[in-house]
């Protein structure tokens, strides 16, 4: 691995990236506001596992092949964008049929699964790791091992930031639990956020 000074620069940069509001943070905030802390926690862990998919794919060269192929990049981008938009529309539709006495949630298992799929199908994550991590790799040492090690640290920091956002969003959700109409509105807003994230992914381009 690179020298200690380079590693510390990597930590600082990775931490800055982790705490900067981005699609992942907006996604877990939306899921938490819509379904509570349990769903937010499941979503955060799911996103982390989805991020690990890109770490290991990048280490073995799969991500580079995807980024090099316009067709593969487009297919992955469309799959991820359409899945996010579908989730958003589904959440919006389900929010509108909430009764005044019952707030329906999607469940932690589905939130966990959705988190993995959303992140694994996001080519922007693959592009980020391919652009960010190699800057801190020592080419005289085994590259794949370094890529995985730095990728694991980056995913850990990202997941930690997501969990912090989940904590605060869960507090907001709990404060509104006694007001189903307000929760319904939060779910509608969360659905709109997911649709917006999916739409933004449609315009992603290969670097």
Number of domains: 1
Tell me the major beta sheet.
none
Structural class: mainly alpha
Radius of gyration: 18 Å
Described by the principal axes of the CA atoms, the overall outline is globular
What is the percentage of strand-forming residues?
under 5%
Number of helices: 9
Distance between the termini: 26 Å
Low-confidence stretches: 99-103
- What is the residue-averaged pLDDT? 83
User: Which percent bin holds the helix content?
Assistant: over 70%
Order of helices and strands: HHHHHHHHH
Instruction: Tell me how many strands there are.
Output: 0
Give the topology, please.
Elements: H1 4-19, H2 23-35, H3 37-60, H4 62-68, H5 70-95, H6 108-120, H7 123-132, H8 143-176, H9 180-202
Description:
The protein has 207 residues and is mainly α. The chain has one domain. Helix content is 80%, strand content 0%. Helix 2 runs parallel beside helix 8. About 2% of the residues have low confidence.
Index terms:
single chain, mainly alpha, globular
Précis, in short:
This protein is an all-alpha fold. The chain has helices at residues 4-19, 23-35, 37-60, 62-68, 70-95, 108-120, 123-132, 143-176, 180-202.
């Amino acid at each position: 691995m690179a020298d200690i000074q380079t590693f510390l620069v990597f930590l600082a940069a990775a931490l800055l990236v982790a705490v900067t509001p981005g699609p992942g943070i907006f996604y877990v905030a939306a899921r938490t506001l819509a379904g509570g802390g349990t769903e937010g926690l499941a979503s955060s862990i799911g996103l982390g596992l989805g991020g690990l998919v890109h770490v290991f794919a990048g280490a073995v060269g799969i991500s580079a092949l995807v980024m090099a192929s316009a067709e593969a990049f487009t297919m992955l981008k469309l799959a991820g964008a359409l899945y996010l938009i579908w989730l958003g529309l589904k959440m919006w539709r389900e929010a509108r049929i909430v009764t005044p006495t019952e707030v329906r949630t999607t469940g932690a298992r589905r939130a966990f699964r959705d988190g993995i799929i959303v992140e694994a199908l996001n080519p922007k994550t693959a592009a980020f790791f391919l652009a960010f991590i190699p800057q801190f790799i020592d080419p005289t040492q085994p590259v794949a091992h370094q890529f995985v090690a730095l990728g694991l640290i980056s995913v850990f920091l990202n997941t930690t930031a997501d969990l912090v956002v989940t904590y605060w969003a869960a507090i907001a959700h709990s404060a509104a639990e006694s007001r189903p109409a307000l929760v319904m509105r939060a779910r509608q807003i969360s659905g709109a956020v997911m649709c917006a994230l999916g739409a933004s992914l449609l315009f992603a381009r290969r670097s």
